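Quick illustration, no need to memorize.
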Amino acid sequence: MKMIKEFWIEYEYKIILSIGFLLVAAISFEFGYMQAGTINSSPIIIEKPAVGSEISPEGRVSSIMESESAVTQKAPVVADLPATAGQANCAFVGSKNSNKYYPPTCSYAKRIKPENLVCFKTAQEALAQGRIISSGCKY
């Protein structure tokens, strides 16, 4: 019993402080758990794009010509053509919303929306605008 008293006297401040931290943590957790029960939000759904559904630009043109009379012709297919043609004429491409530039064959470059596409004839031109080369593509 004497050892317990000595231990308590020696470490009283640390023990009380530790118990206080544990109580604050438990109360905070319970408060957060109660608040989460009142939120009715739908779950986040992350969809992965279909792989292998890309068609070459020539395939897009022929499909547009074949289905020109169809009412269900989609306008975005036509909108993708300038981006592909624009990327073919550029040595490097970038996005208006990014500070990086890529070769037009890079998968990241192919994801840039046509309205955000910026064309560079040389790497020096891109560097002069304050852009950096992407490390995700092989050059």
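The chain has a mean pLDDT of 76.
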